[in-house]
Amino acid sequence: MIKKLIFFFLGVLTLMGVAAGSLWAWLPSDKDIRGCMVTKMYQVELCPGSKNYVPLKQIAPILQKTIILTEDSNFYNHKGFDWDAIEKNAKEGWETGVFKRGGSTITQQLAKNMFLNKDRTFIRKGLEAIITDRIEHTLTKKEILERYLNVVEFGKDIYGVKAAAKYYFKKSPAELTVVEASFLAMVLPNPVKYSQSYYRKELTPFARKRLGRIVDDLFQYHRISQEEYDIASAQVAYFFQPEPPPEELTSDEAIPTLEELENLESQEQLESSEEAE
Prior knowledge:
The protein has helices at 2-26, 30-34, 61-71, 83-96, 106-115, 122-138, 141-151, 161-169, 178-187, 191-194, 196-200, 205-220, 226-236, 258-276, and strands spanning 37-38, 45-46, 153-155, 158-159.
């Protein structure tokens, strides 16, 4: 009996070793992380140096600041995992009975986008943690942010900041304004849903409120100046809506009525005939 148990546990250990070896061989190498690839989740080409890849220096600083503020405010201070945020979410979950999804760091999101699928399993979460750690040890923070901005989804079939800036605003990523950067940040939690605002050319009250809150946070956390805040705040009210009418004309500039135009034309014709005589 003891002999059988020993062989059983040896068999289990062997299988675990084989599984661990296979897993280790499957995990992305430093070369995989740095090189060109087609992402696992959305089948998007990610290739630094290619024509569709935008270096960080060609992406508006305000977009970089806005994405970090809204998606991962401790990005430059953690090693891939925001333990403070994890602890806070867990505590709130135990107290309320509702455990929130999301809260992943930019590095975790990049790991998912590059190498994983949409499965919500413990195995996938474990792989995500291992790959996140590898990415943090392979790339600099700026390289992580650069790759993230080139692969993240901004709407249905809209991947990367170059495609998003062109599609929504007909401009390059370097030209984005405060309110435009705030809009792109706004759609990230649910890009397919929130990007519907663009198709309708109208923000829902909730979306407009969220857009305004992002602009407020940018100012509150000293990412923009008072002047930039004033301009962006004014734009929020009319974002994706017709511009407000011009200021009321003075009496001297008032637009003439149709009757006045006809009288004016008759008077000009009369004066012309008198001059001809």
